[in-house]
Specification:
Elements (H helix, E strand, L loop, with lengths): L1 H15 L1 H20 L6 H5 L16 H29 L1 H6 L2 H5 L5 H30 L10 H29 L3 H21 L13 H6 L3 H4 L3 H24 L5
Protein name: ABC transporter permease subunit
Keywords: Membrane, Transmembrane, Transmembrane helix
Pfam family, one: ABC2_membrane_2
Length: about 260
């Protein structure tokens, strides 16, 4: 009975958020494909016009295919969209029900708090995988026409894996904060997005202030610092992203199971 109900929580969360997941995947995939398709238009003069301040955001080399993709596509546009997806969707997973007063009703069924949390996060993870797959499919679709052949399909896939893991990290952070604190969707989204933007800025500006070590404290370093588009899958970086996600989810679940849910 409990297993059947927990499966229904997962499937119902997927169903209720199907349009949200589809829109995020479609928009992110199309924007990544569109920006990637601009690569043949890059010239030496265009590359030289990029401000030095952007070098820490992946704009060091915009003339090679991998270098260009690590800048506007995977260094700027896609990770910020992934971060906001994780923050917005994670803020809905527990906080929305608690805010509306439906959480007590859900927990009246034969399913524990931890299982509810994990089923909701599993649905969020499915959306993250769909987004990463949409980005990968879009880039592979324009790989030949956009002169991106120097980046192999495996290297594109490696970057897509890191994208999914980055998305899961921020989704797990928002889900964990909501479960641990009982705050509403807006505060949870604001806290998570604020952490994400701050981490992104630190990762980008740290080299300019001579504090490269700060990059190792941000998830964005492990997302793209190993240059998967040049070097392929980086297991240590992936393990760090996955480990932090597990840590924040475990902390959220621990607090969630002990917190008084009375309003």
């Amino acid at each position: 009975m409990a297993d059947a109900f927990s499966r229904s929580i997962f499937s119902k969360t997927l169903y209720d958020n199907r349009r949200i997941f589809a829109v995020w995947a479609l928009v992110t995939g199309l924007l990544a494909m569109m920006y990637a398709a601009f690569y043949p238009q890059m010239t030496a003069d265009t590359a030289a016009s990029v401000p030095d301040a952007m070098s820490g955001f992946g704009f060091e080399d915009t003339t090679s295919a991998a270098g260009y993709l690590q800048g506007p596509v995977f260094g700027l546009l896609v990770p910020l969209l992934a971060m906001f997806y994780g923050a917005a969707t994670g803020a809905r997973m527990i906080s929305a029900d608690e805010e509306s007063g439906h959480l007590d009703l859900l927990l009246a069924h034969p399913v524990g708090r931890t299982r509810l949390l994990l089923q909701r996060f599993a649905a969020l993870a499915a959306g993250a995988v769909v987004i990463a797959a949409a980005v990968l499919a879009g880039l592979l679709a324009v790989r030949t026409s956009a002169d991106l052949g120097s980046v192999s399909a495996g290297e594109f896939a490696a970057q897509a894996v890191n994208l999914a893991l980055l998305t899961l990290l921020f989704g797990g952070l928002a889900t964990g904060i909501g479960a641990a604190t009982g705050k509403g969707r807006a505060p949870v989204f604001g806290i998570t997005a604020g952490i994400g933007v701050a981490a992104y800025a630190i990762n980008g500006f740290a080299p300019q202030i001579g504090a490269d070590w700060l990059r190792y404290l941000t998830p964005f370093h492990y997302y793209i610092g190993g240059e998967p588009l040049r070097n392929g899958f980086q297991p240590v970086d992936a393990a760090v992203l996955a480990g932090v996600t597990l840590l924040v989810m475990a902390a959220g679940a621990w607090r969630f199971t002990r917190r008084d849910l009375a309003r």
